[in-house]
Amino acid sequence: MDPRRIDDRLSVSPQITAADVAELKRLGFRAIICNRPDGEGADQPTFDEIEAAAKAVGLATRYLPIASGIVLDGDADDFALALGELPGPVLAYCRSGTRSATLWSLSQAGRRPLPQILAAAKAAGYDMNGVARRIANGGRTPTDVADARYDILIVGAGAAGIAVAASLRARSESHSIAVIDPADIHYYQPGWTMVGGGVFEPQITARTMGSLIPDGVTWIKAAVAAFEPKDDAVILDGCRVVKYGRLVVCPGLKLDWGRVKGLEETLGRNGVTSNYRYDLAPYTWQLVQSLQRGRAIFTQPPMPIKCAGAPQKAMYLSADAWNRRGVLDDIDIHFCNAGGVLFGVKDYVPALMTYVSAYHASLDFFHNLVAVDGPARQATFEVKAPETEAKTVTMDFDFLHVCPPQTAPDFIRVSPLADAAGWVDVDQATLRHRTYDNIWSLGDVMNAPNAKTAAAARKQAPVVAENVIADIQSRSPAAQYDGYGSCPLTVERGKIVLAEFGYGGALKPSFPRWLIDGTKPSRLAWLLKERMLPPIYWKAMLRGREWLAKPEKIQAVPQPPKTAG
Predict the structure, then answer these.
(1) Which strand (E) or helix (H) includes residue 177?
(2) Is there a contact between 449 and 486 (Cβ–Cβ < 8 Å)?
(3) Of 506, 509, 535, which is closest to residue 520 (Cα–Cα)?
(4) What is the separation of C-alpha 88 from the centre of its chain, rounded to a whole number of angstroms?
(5) 8 Å CB contact between 462 and 546
(6) Is the pTM of this model over 0.85?
(7) Fewest CB within 10 A of the end CB: N or C in the chain?
């Protein structure tokens, strides 16, 4: 515990525990404000635990959770209200104390001189210069004057962001375009399954971000804090404001490792791995090579997730490796799926079931991973089949491959762009926002009912580019997205079931059936995945070359014939 005095009424602190509350009472505090959301860290106590300890010694409490890096204008108002209502002195805490100090600083805007606010925060160990502009603006995010402005602004420089930037640049060199992303490295994530299967080396899946930003496109190396779509503005960390004529939102999704209790502490050791992280995929292959006998568990969380086939791809490649080594009969394989089907498009299930049977894998449906005890080698699942009472099942393991729960990023979920579930709300054909006409979205973050795959983004990027340029030219939307997604299911080393489908599970094969029948395992599909798709990704998709991805024109709606009279 480290209370840091801001003024006579408030001190701020990093995370406290229930055991600290009695000491806070002894130090003279009369109230506690929690600014850290429950579940942000695996080792943090819940607010209920803090509140119970506070009640026991007579301290008042208030729960004002703030997502990391996202202090909204209204949050400062709520903090000021709490300070006015609670008995003082008050202790406010979050993970490090920074959010609490920021809330206080913004809440004092207009009540104290700016230098006095900055000095008080600095004396407590918190540098508030990053929000000085907001403080000077009365505690409000200033969007009237921009630090920069672009004709087209893209949020996110993953597969979708770079691809759409390149497609836009290929269509127009006269419009200013910028991409916002804080990352230094860009990853070819579809390759991580192959890394975990011992086929690819991890380094071939990574390149520097700077080497991929298209010529003529500005890279803003920063994180987004908030959207102000009514003012055509994006707020960056540090309160810089970037304005736009058109906005494209594609930051990907969030891997929510913390939602599985105990998982973060044991990842990369104790036989716990995941192909969903660059640094862990090599550990998957290490574990596969070393396992001789025991139980191997592969998990899949509730949808939506990126590349819904990836969890079972890891199972097939691992089982194939064990089969080739002659140890498969000594390994008990379980595929624990929170859903109720092996794959969402039924046409591909028969071929997959052949391999499930060949590898003697058990399919444990409606099993959602909720906790992992790495040292004890135990995984706990909530099991809830339809019309049955939920129960908890704990399984021992020697090998555990985890697909983490996934959500939209925090700054998307709390934004005006999100639907009720937290995803960017778009028209599923044009990918234009349903509320804001000058905003589009693509990739994993938007709410169209398609598979979240790089192949989907490859098809979406030209559609968005075409429609953005059409809008700039005062034309109607010109292109539509049919829900295409592709999932090359690596059922064994050297063979793939090439699942390609669109909205409603409609099959969307890219090749004639005599060349590649996607419903059956194919060696040619393996060569496509191993040899052709990486260069297509790096040299075509991210360069604006739309091979097999030309945008489909919007079909005109037939008009009823005019009647006489």
Answers:
(1) strand 177-180
(2) no
(3) 509
(4) 40
(5) yes
(6) no
(7) C
Please provide the CATH number assigned to the domain covering 4-136: 3.90.190.10
Half-sphere exposure of 132 (CA within 13 A, CB side): 13
Domain 4-136 and domain 257-407 have a common topology = no
In CATH terms, the fold of domain 257-407 is: FAD/NAD(P)-binding domain (3.50.50)
Residue 335 CA: distances (Å) to CA of 50, 195, 325, 462: 38, 20, 21, 36
Q: Please report, for the chain, the start and end positions of each structural domain, with discontinuous segments joined by +.
A: 4-136, 148-253+426-553, 257-407
The token duo for 412 is 């998307």
- 1 residue type, one letter: M
Catalytic residue list: 307, 487
Q: Write phi, then psi, for 306 (nearest 5 degrees).
A: -75, 135
Under 8 Å between Cβ of 252 and 443: yes
Distance CA 406, CA 419 (A): 16
Identify the CA nearest to 19 among candidates 49, 40, 41, 64.
49
Which residue type occupies 215?
Answer: D
Nearest CA to 143 out of 68, 44, 58, 73 is that of 73
Q: Is the distance from CB of 497 to CB of 521 less than 8 angstroms? A: yes
270 close to 420: Cβ distance less than 8 angstroms: no
DSSP assignment, residue 329? G
Assess contact for 223 and 377: CB atoms under 8 A. Answer: no
- State the maximum Cα–Cα separation within the chain, in Å, rounded to a whole number: 89
Q: What span, in angstroms and rounded, lies between the C-alpha atoms of 307 and 302? A: 13
* Structure-token pair, residue 347: 């046409």
* Nearest 10 degrees: Cα torsion 135, 139, 143, 148: 30
Class in CATH terms, 148-253+426-553: alpha beta
β-strands 4-5, 10-13 pairing: antiparallel
Q: Give which of 304, 197, 142, 207 is closest to 538, Cα–Cα.
A: 207
Which residues, listed in sequence order, are joined to residue 186 by a DSSP beta bridge? 207
